[in-house]
């Protein structure tokens, strides 16, 4: 079992290790020592930070990171807000067409995004949101999976808790903000991480809705290193490492809450 685990870890880590090593090589050395395989294949003979310097000096990668962070964090904030409110309504209120509407919510995260990309683009274009932050953020705010996770969690909250808060004179807004949301930290972390990673890894939608460099996000920026005549491998590897390490640094300290949120909501009905 340990041998199997070591092999699996090696298969996962090795591509990242090779990317890190390659990002520290000069461009002409990237594949110079691939064949035959020697120690130089896995360790640079000349260390250089040229690729990382070029990213931020020549490629304006700082603006790209800002755009990606801004889009992801705003989506997380509004996504959690609207998703939790919708889930609270589905879990604790009764209204006509409730179940049919919830089925539609479930269908939203079962349908591949490619199916709705063209009509969604037409709608965003009519609103004048092409090449704006609105076009990148608003379509991702309403997330059916986030609503589902919150609803499953809210179903397990005792109705007596809400009724006692109502007896004490609490409004629905106060109950939602002061009683309900503080209790659902694990599912909030899970939903926030899912929204963040979804936006961080988004490529197709930012590619078709942005035209200028002012709104370019990290996954689209990585495609710029492959041109018609050549690929700038060391800068591509450097950008990829940055694109990978930031979500990892965010996920590691929050993984306990993430696991609790997913395992504690997905099987309750």
TrEMBL record:
What positions does the domain ABC transmembrane type-1 occupy? 65-254
Topology versus the membrane: Multi-pass membrane protein
Q: Does the keyword Isomerase apply?
A: no
Keyword Transport part of the UniProt annotation: yes
Q: Which UniProt keywords apply?
A: Cell membrane, Membrane, Transmembrane, Transmembrane helix, Transport
Gene3D superfamilies referenced in this protein's UniProt entry, alphabetically: MetI-like
TM ranges are: 64-88, 100-121, 133-154, 175-197, 236-254
The record's annotation in CDD domains points to: TM_PBP2 (cd06261)
Task: Spell out the GO cellular component terms annotated for this protein, sorted alphabetically and separated by semicolons.
Answer: plasma membrane
Q: Which InterPro entries match?
A: MetI-like, MetI-like_sf
List the subcellular locations: Cell membrane
Q: Which domain of life is it from?
A: Bacteria
Q: Which GO terms describe its biological process?
A: transmembrane transport
Report the sequence similarity comment from the record: Belongs to the binding-protein-dependent transport system permease family.
According to UniProt, the name of this protein is Carbohydrate ABC transporter permease
């Amino acid at each position: 079992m340990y041998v199997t685990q070591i092999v699996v870890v090696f298969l996962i880590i090795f591509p990242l290790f090779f990317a890190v090593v390659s990002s520290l090589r000069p461009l002409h050395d990237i594949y110079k020592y691939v064949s035959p395989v020697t120690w130089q294949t896995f360790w640079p003979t000349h260390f250089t930070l040229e690729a990382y310097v070029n990213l931020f000096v020549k490629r304006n990668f700082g603006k790209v990171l800002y755009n990606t962070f801004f889009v992801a964090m705003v989506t997380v904030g509004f996504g959690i807000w609207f998703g939790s409110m919708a889930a609270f309504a589905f879990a604790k209120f009764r209204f006509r067409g409730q179940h049919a509407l919830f089925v539609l919510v479930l269908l939203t995260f079962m349908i591949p995004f490619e199916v709705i990309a063209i009509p969604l683009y037409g709608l965003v274009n009519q609103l004048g949101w092409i090449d704006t932050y609105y076009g990148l953020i608003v379509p991702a705010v309403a997330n059916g999976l986030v609503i589902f996770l919150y609803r499953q969690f809210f179903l397990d909250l005792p109705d007596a808790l809400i009724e006692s808060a109502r007896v004490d004179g609490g409004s629905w807004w106060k109950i939602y903000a002061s009683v309900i949301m503080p209790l659902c930290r694990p599912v909030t972390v899970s939903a926030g991480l899912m929204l963040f990673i979804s936006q961080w890894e988004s490529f197709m939608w930012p590619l078709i809705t942005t035209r200028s460099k002012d709104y370019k996000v990290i996954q689209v920026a990585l495609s710029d290193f492959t041109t018609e005549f050549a690929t700038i491998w060391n800068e591509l590897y450097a950008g990829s490492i940055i694109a990978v390490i930031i979500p990892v640094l965010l996920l590691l300290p929050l993984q306990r809450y993430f696991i609790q949120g997913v395992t504690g909501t997905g099987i309750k009905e």
